[in-house]
Amino acid sequence: MSNRLANEKSPYLLQHKDNPVDWYPWGEEAFEAAKRLDRPLFVSIGYATCHWCHVMERESFEDPDVARLMNGAFVSVKIDREERPDLDAAFMAVCQAGGGSCGWPLTVIITPDRKPFLVTTYLPKESVPSRIGMLDLVPRISQMWITDRDGIEERANQIEEFVASSQQFEATRLSDACVDNAVHDLAASFDRLNGGFGGAPKFPSPHVLVFLIRHAARGNVAEALSMARLTLRQMRRGGIFDQVGYGFHRYSTDSEWILPHFEKMLYDQATHMSALTEAWAATRDEEFRHTIAELSVYLSERLAAPSGAFYSAEDADSEGEEGRYYVWSLAELEDVLGNDAAAFARAFRCTASGNFLDEATRRRTGTNVLHRGSKDEYAVPEHLAGALSRLKQARSRRVPPLLDDKILCDWNGLMIASLADAGWRLDDKELLHQAEKAYRSVSLLLGTDDGKLLHRYRDGDAAIPALLDDYACMIRASLSLYRATGRVSYLQEALRLQSVQDDAFLDRDNGGYFMTTVASTEVLTRQKEFVDGAYPSGNSISAGNLVWLHRLTGSADFRDTALRTMTAVARFIERSPSSFASMLDSYDELLHPATEVVIVAGTAADAEPARDLIRSRFTPGVTVHVLTEENRDDLELLAPFVSGMSRLGSRPTYYICTDFSCRAPTTSLDELASALKHTF
């Protein structure tokens, strides 16, 4: 085995000792070797918890015959898509340009001057109907490289031109109706029995639920809230939620949320917690509070690093089998639970033949995914509470899934923001403590001496200049912590990071943010990502941050940049509004009057009764400042509209403003409560 990857910090790049492929890391060494040897590069893009990446590794990359062909024909490169989402996005755009099957592992063959000419996904060792195998593909590409170089160059140039054209965004007016259109589209695809949208496989998309919940509050749209509420309830009862150890799996392979793809991603926990927090604030449904507490337990037990930051993910596989760690045969339940097994099996829908279908073959395995019936209470029957604890203890003796122990700046930012929001809404000091500890850790591990950020930390090594999502998510974390704590230092940091983001990523000519800095030369073209995927795009998060900063500071520049970000992609939003739910949430907020509340108090503690009152109302469009003598100089500098606000006498005084036009101040909590009834 080559030792080139031996010291790489990504779990995806760490190879088995007997791996015969001579792998290079992405970088100049690989391209210099390709030029020297006059070979194309074979690039495999995957990630540590990718099931089919493991399959291709075992079938092909560990096979001596395949490796011999690869080592003779290519310079082979591995990329962890989670470490280099910029490269992944660029090559995924190439794949989509070709109209092929796109997914991971993503297989890219490129010229030494970095021009892709073939992109596909998982390839078996041997050819099967409709899919060429590695043993046939490698010799074919090798022959083409020798005999048809002009054809390869022509194909590469066509791809390059197509990808460049796909990044041409023309700003147009965004229709106010697009928000209602998005809700209408979501309602048309809503599964009214099981929740969620569309059929199998079914992806959670919690950011869509946040959009619906907040839109319901602003426009008094009961249907939007009911769609989100049913979806969250059904997922909590389903197998997509780990009933034993908590946490949400990646997605459901069926339409009923029963049979999951078993990966657990940090960003999924973050976005689910965000949706649950908004749902609890809107409904006060205790099921949502309870599930947030369970997610916090999962984070502490499985994903929390000693420093307080969070690891990236847990794999779907263990002992070479997907889901093995999570599923139970009836015999296993009987061994662990004894006399309680029959009642437990009924409560969690387990049978002797099993309910779990292998994702690839769709055959029953004789094992069960624990889940509750759609009409069951989420809470476990009291007499079975101990049974879950015993199962958790028994499961701890199994071989656990691989832990992807990368610490990623963007995913941690998402998680910190969700913890801070939940801590604020639920008045939960432990959740807020988790958020602040993680924020300090990420700032220490991934902050640079010149005030910038890095993307990835693992095993003592911080590396890779931060991308748009890293800044956007850490700004969101800073803003959420400012709301939760009232400490001006968090607002200062949000504004500082926003300035860095604007300098490095903002397209001042056409609007929106590039994924990479202008200094990046490693990709085909600077990508702009607008469509929400498993979590909101960096541009969507940025638009929300800018709207929030506008309402906190009064600066119209933030609002204008947010609108330019939205209008840059307006024609795409008009075509498919539900694909931009997170950005439309921010646009929806701009369509409604803003409410700014400034609490002027002697100390932060004196402001707590008013903060408690605001916390008790679901008012998505309300921003809050606490102005004290201690922070006055700093806050007046950041938010000039609060200058001159003072207490009436010695009592806490409340300034209630609409789009920065303030009514007469009051010391009455009743008047504050009355004003909040008419805000959204």
Feature tags:
680 residues, alpha+beta, Glutaredoxin, 5-stranded mixed beta sheet, 25 helices, 19 strands
Structural commentary:
The mean pLDDT is 92. The strands form six sheets. Strands 1-3-2-4-5 form a five-stranded mixed sheet, sandwiched between helices. Helix 9 crosses helix 10. By secondary structure, the chain is an alpha+beta fold. The chain has 25 helices and 19 strands. Among the domains are: 144 residues, Glutaredoxin (3-Layer(aba) Sandwich); 158 residues, no CATH class; 82 residues, Glutaredoxin.
User: What is the arithmetic mean of pLDDT?
Assistant: 92
List segments where confidence is low: pLDDT < 50 over at least 5 consecutive residues.
none
Structural class: alpha+beta
Helix content: 40-55%
* Number of beta strands: 19
Note the gap between the termini.
Answer: 61 Å
Main sheet specs? 5 strands, mixed
Rough outline: globular
* Total helical segments: 25
Topology:
Layout (H helix, E strand, L loop, with lengths): L22 E3 L2 H10 L3 E6 L4 H11 L2 H10 L1 E6 L4 H13 L8 E5 L5 E5 L13 H14 L1 H18 L11 H12 L16 H14 L2 H16 L13 E2 L7 E2 L2 E2 H18 L2 H18 L9 E2 L2 E2 L2 E2 L7 H8 L3 H7 L37 H11 L7 E2 L2 E2 H18 L2 H18 L7 E5 L2 E5 L2 H18 L2 H18 L32 H16 L2 H12 L2 H6 L5 H10 L4 E6 L7 H8 L6 E6 L4 H7 L14 E6 L2 E2 L6 H8 L4
Parallel strand pairs: 1-3, 2-3, 16-17
Antiparallel strand pairs: 2-4, 4-5, 6-7, 8-9, 9-12, 10-11, 13-14, 14-15, 16-18, 18-19
Helix pairs in contact: 3-5, 4-6, 8-9, 8-10, 8-22, 9-10, 10-11, 10-15, 12-13, 15-16, 15-17, 16-17, 17-18, 17-19, 19-20, 19-22, 23-25
